Automatic annotation (TrEMBL):
One of its GO terms (molecular function) is metal ion binding. One of its GO terms (cellular component) is cytoplasm. Its cofactor is Zn(2+). CDD domains: INTS11-like_MBL-fold (cd16291). One of its GO terms (biological process) is snRNA processing. The keyword Cell membrane does not apply. This is Integrator complex subunit 11. Residues 17-181 form the Metallo-beta-lactamase domain. InterPro entries: Beta_Casp, INTS11-like_MBL-fold, IntS11_C, MBL, Metallo-B-lactamas, RibonucZ/Hydroxyglut_hydro, RMMBL. It is found in: Cytoplasm; Nucleus. Keywords: Cytoplasm, Hydrolase, Metal-binding, Nucleus, Zinc. Pfam families: Beta-Casp, IntS11_C, Lactamase_B_6, RMMBL.
Amino acid sequence: MLDCGMHMGYNDDRRFPDFSYIAREGRLTEKINCVIISHFHLDHCGALPYMTEQVGYDGPVYMTHPTKAICPILLEDYRKITVERKGETNFFTAENIKTCMKKVITVNLHQVIQVDDELEIKAYYAGHVLGAAMFHIRVGQNSVVYTGDYNMTPDRHLGAAWIDKCRPDLLITESTYATTIRESKRCRERDFLKKIHTCVENGGKVLIPVFALGRAQELCILLESYWDRMNLKVPIYFSLGLTEKANHYYKLYITWTSQKIKKTFVNRNMFDFKHIKAFDRAYIDNPGPMVVFATPGMLHAGLSLQIFKRWAPNENNMVIMPGYCVAGTVGHRILNGARKIELENKHILEVKMAVEYMSFSAHADAKGIMQLISQCEPQNVLLVHGEAEKMAFLKTKINQEFGIDCFMPANGETSVIHTKHNLPIDTSLSLLKRQMVPAEDSEEPDPKRLRILHGALLMKGSRMHLAEPAAAFRELGVEEHNLRFTCNICLEEDGAVGDLTERIYRRLQREFPRSSVLFSTDNSITVGDSVLVKISGDEESKNLLVSWSHQDEDIGSKIQSVLRPS
């Protein structure tokens, strides 16, 4: 199973996957060999404790070291919001999270993990967030690459995704920004800073909903350096406790960050912010301008939604949505122009504050997705994690540009991918030598040209061997039978039989310079190992008998065309 996330737009049973697609009843362990989690975002790991502890799964769960460290923190944070604050009951417990994480096996980048006798997996760097990985999954000759979420351009704190030219049968890729090609990052950053500066200069408050780790760090580094440069005194706040946790994990997993951070880390930790302080809920109604980074990023719950409710009616304030919002969330509704939002208690919230969307999302855009396809050269592509209309556009583009099949199944739909199998066969050196450089070939052999090998295919268990027919007969204790083909050619030719034989002999020498062509006194000519040409007749007409074994079928056919009257 690739990822096990939850839908952030639902508060009922639809928030978790429908596991009855895998097993109608009973535990899932019998149906699934392993679970792979690509990164710690809740839409990729949020249903994991529910699956393992409540539905029932005891097999291995694979993820990288940073994902294992951060995953339980985000799961517990979300559980507290859902259960303790909202009072929901159909949810996993704190104990479920602990038991679930005990089933996790950590993987290093480029480490090949043998899951069982047939299945092996290998992780590659995906950018996106700390610890995010793409996985190459192989069973026998079939292979799949699953990208999870990835970013093909490096940023301030993470590098770009990278994978081998592994040519999988299938590439399963996210398609969040299937039709978007983002403008220059520098322009976006300048616009972001200008909007914030203008708003706080006019006395307004700026809310930036983010997830605890990822874009938050990227935007904090950007704002910190701007505040330093412009000598601004307006306070910037971050959700209490999460800055410290983020700092701890970025220090611990410094090897997963960008080259710049690794270089400067010895002298200065870029995550020790001078201008950004921890936020307290008591500050919400403080007078004067401020900038607040609050979680979660889609305004569907928690502190970010609480602040939004209080600041939304004031037209001086601004909310900047820096990433993608799932349908159904408050973030998605305001980005689509909703100015009146119905909240849980039927209360209508009037949104007068400015709403801005600036894509600082760490997902690959359309150009990045196409770049990954050309980098790993798959046989087929399957699009997930996107919107149907945009995916359909990208699907057409992939078909046109790469000439490969592209699939975009809906939830619950099955896709059948046809793959080609290459069967490894051993062969003897003598057979290769004899057939790859045949004596009758007048030109030097071309190593790039495909050739047909003639031999006997022997199968022993799962091993296959192509042998010389004589050797195969000996090995099997079978008597060899020779199959010969004959052809009669009539020629209306005056003169002695010997003269015609002489002329044909000279012609065959010219046509087959690398084969032995022998002339016999009984007016017969042999070419190679088994081809025989016998000439008989009288002074006015001649009969040519051409005979060859099936091994020399090519030579026999060529001699017929040479000797037939034009």
